[in-house]
Amino acid sequence: MVKRTLSVMVVALAIVGFSIYITSSRSSDGPNLGAGHDQAEEDASAEGITVHGHWKLDIFNADGALDRSVEFENALVGGGPTQLANVLGRVWTPGAWSIQLLSAETQPCDDGSGPEACLISELEFEGPNAFTTLTLDTSTPGELTLAGQATIANTTTIDGVQTQWLNCESNISPDNCPGSLSVPESGSTFTSKLLAETEAGPVPVTEGQVVQVSVTLSFS
Description:
This protein is mainly β and 220 residues long. It has helices at residues 35-46, 79-88; strands at residues 19-21, 48-60, 66-76, 92-102, 109-110, 115-116, 118-121, 130-131, 135-137, 143-151, 156-158, 160-169, 189-194, 203-205, 210-219.
């Protein structure tokens, strides 16, 4: 199992939507199929493929009782479109996924030397703020669900969440790509959300609570 240390800096993230628009073209030498065909082409060119991210946070007390549940949508950030394009274009090999829970003040977890963001990952990172509990589910066609959990070390608020998708260079096979950062680390954040922008707002958490997280990525 690959072990790495991870230091997380909280930054202000510009949340951006991302759509890949599908356009159609018609040769002037081709047959004229009439006005109905022209309208169909116009309708098709106005449609797009959008990436959605639906989050759910379930907060459990130390005794196992559910304290609260929060649901919201997120968006791709600057590196997300680059990652999609490079993986689809076989420039990068897809690697491991992770989720981060962040606070604008005291971070919710602890890495042994002080407050740190909670890291929920497929990989085993060093530090008590890292939880190797992330699972991937593709059983629903057109959807990818990431799910895992972390134990809160510090009483604070969860102010932001991220998904991170680590990738390798194209000459590394998927089986040998546990998440090498041989590609720029700036492209590792895939989706993100500031909870102040949601109806629920920042989520209060207390020491000893367990946060179960799921995010479903879908396309429409």
